[in-house]
């Protein structure tokens, strides 16, 4: 077991197990660990080996207030946190969009499992966090994302975009533990953890 005091694990979750999920850990000195996983069991094993204070997951972990479920048609498509992203002009995919429904179901299931083991799990959003931090999103290319993360003092390399997004999430957890991140949204409906705009 790795005995380094990992502060946070970032999980860039894929909607299905045959696609790679990026995982990353950060410690108090901003040293990083990273890998790819596929199954829920592999993700849980990674978290348990590192015993982080916080897990930040790139997956919606709640549904809009007023909805019975994702499978029942409804007029409610946005949560309060999603509306706040709109106000900040941060691009995102609504949780009720077709492919997102698969991701949200996996995210809620996995977060529930980790919470049952005593871990604190927050919903994060790497793209939105990168916008706030002034880091190019993966759509601009891996090299631009690597350069932006290095400018934050993170020792990343030409890793996969899944791992780099996971690093972003781990860093947001690091900021949270240092009082430099905030929750947007409604606690009863669902919140997203993002860096403070002053960072």
How do you describe this structure in short?
The protein has 199 residues and is of the alpha/beta class. It has helices at residues 40-50, 80-87, 98-116, 126-133, 142-151, 161-177, and strands spanning 6-12, 21-27, 32-37, 54-57, 121-123, 181-186, 190-195.
Can you walk through the features of this model?
The protein has 199 residues and is of the alpha/beta class. It has helices at residues 40-50, 80-87, 98-116, 126-133, 142-151, 161-177; strands at 6-12, 21-27, 32-37, 54-57, 121-123, 181-186, 190-195. It has one domain (6-195): 2-Layer Sandwich (Nucleotidyltransferase, domain 5). The chain contains six helices and seven strands; from the N terminus they run βββαβααβαααββ. The strands form two sheets. The protein has a five-stranded mixed beta sheet with strand order 3-2-1-4-5. A two-stranded antiparallel ribbon has the order 6-7. β2 (21-27) and β3 (32-37) form a beta hairpin. The longest helix is centred in the middle third of the chain and has 19 residues, at 98-116. The termini are far apart. The model has no long low-confidence stretch (mean pLDDT 91).
Keyphrases for this structure?
199 residues, alpha/beta, Nucleotidyltransferase, domain 5, 5-stranded mixed sheet, two-stranded antiparallel sheet, 7 strands, 37% helix
- The amount of helix comes to 25-40%
Distance between the termini: 33 Å
Reported by name, the CATH topology is: Nucleotidyltransferase, domain 5
- pLDDT < 50 runs, ≥5 residues: none
- Which oligomeric state applies? single chain
Q: H/E series, N to C?
A: EEEHEHHEHHHEE
